[in-house]
UniProtKB/TrEMBL annotation:
It is a peripheral membrane protein. Belongs to the THEM4/THEM5 thioesterase family. The gene is THEM4. Residues 149-221 form the Thioesterase domain. The keyword Hydrolase applies. Pfam families: 4HBT. It catalyses: dodecanoyl-CoA + H2O = dodecanoate + CoA + H(+); tetradecanoyl-CoA + H2O = tetradecanoate + CoA + H(+); hexadecanoyl-CoA + H2O = hexadecanoate + CoA + H(+); (5Z,8Z,11Z,14Z)-eicosatetraenoyl-CoA + H2O = (5Z,8Z,11Z,14Z)-eicosatetraenoate + CoA + H(+). One of its GO terms (cellular component) is mitochondrial inner membrane. This is Acyl-coenzyme A thioesterase THEM4. GO terms for biological process: apoptotic process; fatty acid metabolic process.
Length: 240
């Protein structure tokens, strides 16, 4: 059965807001899947369109893919288990087997890639190296509800953390969030598409200061503003 936010919402008229409350019709999936295998695990890139993506999300994705053609923007791959090199680096320096055993580690999933298609965090990220900007195109699915018909603030915070964190990660390698401030200005209707913008403002030693905002796809609504402080981890310090 096709799982997407579009079908259930059609029967929930009350959820339809003035702009984007209900998902537009389904789109055809792209035939090409970017994937590769390492040992026994198949790594599939989750940032490519799937049938749950709304027309708005597809349109924005295609616009950003066009911007990638001259090399100014790059589409960042998203794997269920995070990017391999960073996982290896983190494991090498910071993973403590006392707390998370190896057999448990094989079952972990990146939080934002852990829902069934269309029900959670459908997103794609793009990066502009000259501007030090990361943009996340995000469609929050039905299982991310907070107040009826709207996204949960924690789900919004998760994607803001991930997007600002990605900017910091690209600038500083292995980082963790030390501080995240969010002003929620307008609620985000479930299944609508928003654009999360983020940029590195300042790097001071191990501290990376990042700011960002969340806008509707048509840029008419400012949903949230955020600042974050990310700290480059010190390999000589234990995390636990
Ligand atoms: C799609 C995939 C995208 C992936 C992107 C990743 C996004 C997700 C990232 C996360 O959500 S991480 C999970 C949430 N974060 C944590 O669990 C981190 C918990 N905190 C810690 O482990 C430590 O506090 C931390 C590693 C962040 C810092 O500890 P350290 O011992 O390395 O730093 P230290 O205390 O020496 O401070 C270094 C500098 O940062 C400053 N600092 C640290 N924490 C601060 C804070 N909270 N506010 C302000 N300043 C802070 C501190 O004052 C100091 O400034 P100075 O160099 O000027 O002296």
């Amino acid at each position: 059965m096709l799982r997407s936010c579009a079908a259930p919402l059609r029967s929930l008229g009350a959820l339809r807001g003035p702009r984007g409350g209900a998902c537009p019709p389904l789109c055809e999936p792209r035939p090409a899947l970017r994937s590769f295998s390492s040992e026994k695990v198949i790594y599939k890139d989750f940032s490519i369109p799937n049938p749950s993506w709304s027309k708005d999300l597809r349109l924005l994705f295609d616009q950003f893919m066009k911007k990638c053609e001259d090399g100014s923007w790059k589409c960042l791959p998203l794997y269920k288990h995070g990017s391999l090199q960073r996982i290896q680096d983190f494991k090498t320096f910071f993973h403590d087997p006392k707390f998370t055993k190896e057999d448990v580690m094989t079952q972990t999933r990146l939080f934002t890639s852990s829902f069934e298609e269309g029900l959670g965090f459908e997103h794609a990220m793009f990066y502009n190296d000259v501007e030090k900007r990361t943009v996340c195109l995000f469609q929050g699915g039905l299982y991310l509800e907070g107040m009826p018909g709207f996204l949960h603030g924690g789900a919004i915070a998760t994607m803001i953390d991930s997007t600002l964190g990605m900017s910091a990660l690209i600038a500083g390698g292995i980082v963790m969030t030390a501080n995240l401030n969010i002003n929620f200005k307008r609620p985000i209707p479930l299944c609508s598409v928003v654009v999360i913008n983020s940029q590195v403002d300042k790097v001071e030693g191990r501290k990376i200061f990042v700011s960002g905002n969340v806008q509707s796809a048509d840029e008419k609504t400012l949903h949230s503003e955020a600042t974050g402080l990310f700290i480059q981890l010190d390999p000589d310090k234990s995390l636990t």
